[in-house]
Amino acid sequence: MNRAKITIVGAGNVGASCAVWAASQELGDIVLVDIPDFADKTAGKALDLLQCAPIERFDCRIVGTADYADAKDSDLVIITAGIPRKPGMSRDDLIETNVKIVGSVAEQVARAAPNAVLIVVSNPLDAMVYTAWKKSGFPPQRVIGQAGCLDIARYRTFLAMELGCSVEDITALLMGGHGDDMVPLPRYTSVAGIPITQLIGADRLQSIIARTKNGGGELVKLMGTSAYYAPASGTIQMAEAIVKDKKRILPCAAYCRQEYRVGGYFVGVPCVLGSAGVEKVIEVELTGDERRMFDASVGHVKELVNVAERFLGR
Predict the structure, then answer these.
(1) Mean of the per-residue pLDDT values for the chain?
(2) pLDDT in tens, 72-83
(3) What are the residues whose beta carbons fall under 8 Å from the beta carbon of 93, sequence distance 6 or more?
(4) So which residues are the catalytic ones?
(5) Could you tell me the residue ranges of all domains in the chain?
(6) Coil, strand, or helix at residue 48?
(7) What CATH number has the domain spanning 5-145?
(8) Taking Cα atoms as reference points, which of 114, 117, 8, 118 lies closest to residue 62?
(9) Distance CA 260, CA 295 (A)
């Protein structure tokens, strides 16, 4: 059988959860890669997941390794490697550390799988997508960041909880960066075609948007660690669109130059995802207020990238 080959770099909570979702959907054969210090643990996670196959009824090969040679000719590579921000660590310290990690990963991936599409999940997301693009040398349409799918999932979940309806009936759009940099677009949010503004009052809707923006922080307070099930699920939603060439319209951190007058940065926008990666960036009309919020978000992305640029040549 000619199955897709998916490599996931970083076998921690997010990477391992990506592997579970991908296997359960039979998206392809899976390679889990982590550093040599974790080689046995990575191999064990892969074997443990593989032993779910007879029960969950999926067929694919799953291996865990520290050798990028096993990622040879992957169709899709998901990068979750990197460290979370620790107490006392500055933003610049985090970026410096993760630029080194993600940059090294991107270089090794480019050698092993030069035709792959990259999905970057590592934080700070917008700076790490830029880092992966620079270090891989890939065309920008084959380097994509995952944040919007997660944010939309949280938003839709909170709206469904408020309305007591199915999440399947909610369609929504958010743009810009992750968290506080998120640009909500209630005008493009509806429930079974009904505008959300007809179902939820303005003040309550703003409270739900605020909770969405702080969705990651809420989970850190509850769990003591960053989220992993939902970030992984959002990543695999993108992966499915790519490996199955579904042409789905999803919010992703995509390279924009003329689009939205961004000028050459990766920012959260609605995209058509298919086998070539980002096949089109969709430009929606923005009001004056929405445009100002989006421009402010892009400005923060530029600040992060400027910091990352200081470390990219080292």
Answers:
(1) 95
(2) 999 999 999 998
(3) none
(4) 178
(5) 5-145
(6) helix
(7) 3.40.50.720
(8) 8
(9) 9
